[in-house]
Batch of 3 targets.
Target 1
Amino acid sequence: MTVIINALTPVLALIVLGFLIRRTEFIPSTFWPAAEKLTYYLLMPAMLIHSLAGKEIGSSPWLNILLTVGGAILASVLFVMLGWLPRRHMGGAAFTSLFQGGVRFNTFVALALAENLFGKEGLFLASLGAGFMILIINVLCVSAFSVAVGHGVFDLKRLARDLVRNPLIWGCTLGIGLNASGVILPAAMDGSLVLIGKAAFPVGLMAVGAAYQPGNIALHWQPLLTSCGIQFLCKPAIAWWLAAATGLSGVAAGVAVLLFSVPTAPSAYILSRQMGGDHDSMAVIITVQTCLSFFTLPLTLWLLR
């Protein structure tokens, strides 16, 4: 339990800090849109390039991990669609919040728990799985925005344009390309990416807190309830089943389930703001899921053991 509290408390603390800063007007309200734009176009791509470029696959069960996380992600998309069917009246922007709330994962929490629970081997395998997930999820989320915010019309040109222009996908592509090519970044450049990328997490979480309105829970309870059910019930179960089906065991299986048991990512709010989503409901989903995970993660880990 202590490990989970230590991993989740910084996340919640930064959300609360952003909430207090916005409510006390310690910083002018004009700061937040600029901070969100900076995070989206610079801080997060830098973090992605650094985190994906430096992973050595080696003799790890990378194919089994890829099959497990890829299958679980596609299953989570299916769960989202099934959860959306009885709520088709919600607008396209609200659907994107449901989509991100049920598909994304909090990388920081997942990696912190993997290292504390499974040591260096767990951290490496979690980083490997997260690398696969980041690219797949970002492509799916940008595609969902392109269709949903475009009034449900599938426009191939619009989708291609949104994918090509998305800085997060560029960050994933460059990081994986550097990894696959074996190119090692100069120490000065890699160090710069590390420093820039480290700012993405605190700035993004404070932006979530700044946008959070307590009264919005009642307004956005439908996407909130559905996304929480998918995130904390459906995804861990399907990840456990796929891990067994692909032959993963021990630490690798535990890491696979862990990746699909954490709350959604704070980057979901930044993407929602920049691509015309319902950022109010997204802020509610991120905050509530983070709070709920204090209770759901101990139960998941107990079942896992």
Note: The domain at 2-304 is CATH 1.20.1530.20 (Na+/H+ antiporter like fold).
Target 2
Amino acid sequence: MAFGQILLAAVLGAVVGVERELGAQPAGLRTHMLVSLGAALFTLAGAGLPHTDPTRVAAQVVTGIGFLGGGAIFKEGVTVRGLTTAASLWVTASIGLAVGLRAWQAAVAVTALTVAVLWLVKQAERHFLQLRRNLVLCVALKNGVSLDEVEHEMLRVLPRAKVLRVTYAEHEQVIEVTARPPTTASLPQLAEALRRLPGVAGVNVSG
């Protein structure tokens, strides 16, 4: 029975890991399989010892997975990435724990719901919520261009833009702003409109 539980934990962890792998996330197939396997084995080992409370073992697993999830989170400019992957590792650990405690139906149901949240909800966000997200734009200026002049022109394209940071390099200066995109333009159209502004050398847009 223990071998079957470990095998099921690996399979369920792999189901979540495949979705992360296809999305080119920092933690993919192998990481999620190992997290689920480890959580299941810790639970099985704890449950097999006399006078041992499996919930205490589960609490230690949850604490340990926090360090692993923290490694998947990193800051890129003004945005924080990896939170969803860290959450998927946390959920995968709970799936392994459930398998170790023989809560088969709960483990399978949570696996299915996790994949649904990671993939189906992601598709819904792209189609219905994309226009509500703030964008982060890095606008590189040409040499000798007035920063105030470009900022004034930029506000015509993005009326509610907020300047986050201005970076001065040897040969260029970059304005980093955040703004909610207009509903009348796609991201490529928005980037092209900004690139055509007087004094703008290049534009980098991220959601």
Note: The CA atoms of residues 5 and 99 lie 6 Å apart.
Target 3
Amino acid sequence: MAQIHRLHIQDEAKNCSADQFYSFLKTERTKLPQVFPLGFKSVDILAGDGKSVGTVRLSKIAMGTPNVVTVTDKTEAVDDESRTLGFSVIDGDLLRMYTKFEYKLTVTPLVTQAGDKQSCLVEWFVEYEKENEDVLNPTEYVELASNITKTMGSHHDRMA
């Protein structure tokens, strides 16, 4: 029987409100290549409205030069009250290594000590099942999630 593995990371998106960050990832993920061109080559909506459960997106992700990885994911959960989004990978290169790959993120508001600029805490939860025990843990994808958080926080004006 295959073993389910879980990873959790959290990072602060500075100078970016929780609502801005959450709204961007919920409704404007197709703009990720503009905000984070080193990580994303393209993000296209294949099905759905781009913001609701059932939306399917195809992403081309730069995972080291010249490697580009394709990932098709489906939005499985949207909770505006808790600013939580859940996704499952349904096709693409990741499924060659992992029989299951799901991720969820939760965005929580933070107020800086100065009180005049907001930041937010972004928590990423990854659940995966390896194709076999020789497959490495998906650390580069966890690093990508961390870089998304940091990059989007510094580019919050593009999210408005």
Note: The chain has four helices and seven strands.
